[in-house]
């Protein structure tokens, strides 16, 4: 009390001593007011808080449930061309001096003539896994923050067949770009000398550490793993009729068997950006080359793989006829799998999309801009796939757009050749019409906003950021828009189900933190907890059939030239390649258990 009075500017310094005497006298005489105040308190013996009982992650039951999704390879091997050459390549740069044919070792060495990397992989054989220590599996302390309306979703449950898993891509985590007979892909220029970017020649070394990584996922109870198979590991030269790499075939066969043995169900992405240098999407024979490769993996692994992703985010390619080539390749493979291989698994293609929200919800122009953005982002490929409809008029009517309307034969081939909708909705964004209007922009290919002709922003009309920002421009903690994202694709394309195939959050400055701080990744956990809460609402309140979520990524990745964007549920020591679980890995799984 004296402390407070001494800072009261209305009390003169000459009266403060007298006031203190009266206060102290009142205190020591235990006056009636103070006695009444203190009667609510008492003293006892101090004890340190009891250490809470340590709880541990629940591992998966093993092996994974036994199911067959296609005939085994020995029964369907005749579906492949009997004249295919099977071999294994080894990079010897000196071999270019010899001539041993179109697809010999010298030709293979020539493929790599323009690619050199500053760091070489620290090991070149599969690493024997070591048991995960008990201490590593201890669950993190209780969350200090939970979604504001968490109590309203306590009784909401995920469907019994919900796909809870993690995602990845080969180029971003495998390493060993020039090892085991792999050929170059279009991604390999990232980091190749003299570039200053980080290359993926070492990356996470998943190619040789897959047994360890699968064991670690199983120990914390993650039942699904989505991984990609690089086209150029299986077909190093990329083109139809060229040799197939047996070392790659054996590798992914063992990877799938290892996953199943540990209780993990595989989801395979056939192309995750890394197409061969020799086969651009614009190639008129793209579909033939793609099918030559894809049939190899589907024939060999189709009996054990229930879900296939034909292409990852092809809608990020420029809007042109290459998108039609991709649709034709996808639909042709779908038909072959269902009719020739007699596959019973499910096939999809996954898309990039952060929902555009009209900056001014009452502005017709902004609403039209949002719909136009979605026409370019999703409508171009999903109108034909799900609805059997033509490419949107807003796209085809854009001046000098290098894409033509689909023929009736193409529409017939493409329509319905997809089993569920799959996309990567990391976040949302605001959209508004461009200066001068959409029509003027659409008529002017020199306009920097052409061809979409909309303005995107992450700042709302009231000046507030859309949500907590990450270290990249497109990922925010903005759960208030998750249900709208899911509702848009559900009610627009009317699929049988919706898979969230990637979602994640890289915090600012993770790369500068000590390991203990990186492990306690509260923002990433908040992102997943809030996001999954909205998924539950979407399922139960909006009646959207969300069939699963795959978090990006199960360990730190090369995000196309940088390791600073830490999406991973595990850290990766770039020297020892040791993995460390983050709390978000445990919290992601535990949230699912709480609602199962």
What's this model, at a glance?
It contains 19 helices and 17 strands. With 596 residues, the protein is α/β, with parallel strands linked by helices.
How much of the sequence is in beta strands?
5-15%
CATH fold label of the domain at 73-83 and 114-353 and 475-594: TIM Barrel
Report the total helices.
19
Basic shape: globular
Per CATH, the superfamily of the domain at 73-83 and 114-353 and 475-594 is Glycosidases
pLDDT average, as an integer? 92
Number of extended strands: 17
Biggest sheet: strand arrangement = 2-3-5-6-7-9-14-15
| Spans of at least 5 consecutive residues with low confidence | 1-12, 26-30
Whole-angstrom Rg:
29 Å
User: What is the terminal separation in angstroms?
Assistant: 54 Å
The helix content, as a percent range, equals 25-40%
CATH class of the domain at 73-83 and 114-353 and 475-594: Alpha Beta
**Helix-and-strand structural type:** alpha/beta
Family: Belongs to the glycosyl hydrolase 1 family.
GO molecular function, one term: beta-glucosidase activity
Protein name: Glycoside hydrolase family 1 protein
Keywords: Hydrolase
Strand and helix map with partners:
Layout: H1 2-5, H2 16-28, H3 32-38, H4 73-76, E1 86-87, H5 105-111, E2 163-167, H6 170-173, H7 206-219, E3 224-228, H8 231-234, E4 244-245, H9 246-261, E5 265-269, H10 286-301, E6 307-312, H11 322-340, E7 346-352, E8 355-358, H12 364-387, H13 393-396, H14 408-414, E9 421-424, E10 428-432, H15 438-442, E11 455-457, E12 468-469, E13 476-477, H16 482-493, E14 498-500, H17 515-519, H18 522-540, E15 546-552, E16 570-572, E17 579-581, H19 583-594
Parallel strand pairs: 1-4, 2-3, 2-15, 3-5, 5-6, 6-7, 7-9, 8-10, 9-14, 14-15
Antiparallel strand pairs: 10-11, 12-13, 16-17
Helix pairs in contact: 10-11, 16-18, 18-19
GO molecular function, one term: beta-glucosidase activity
Protein name: Glycoside hydrolase family 1 protein
Keywords: Hydrolase
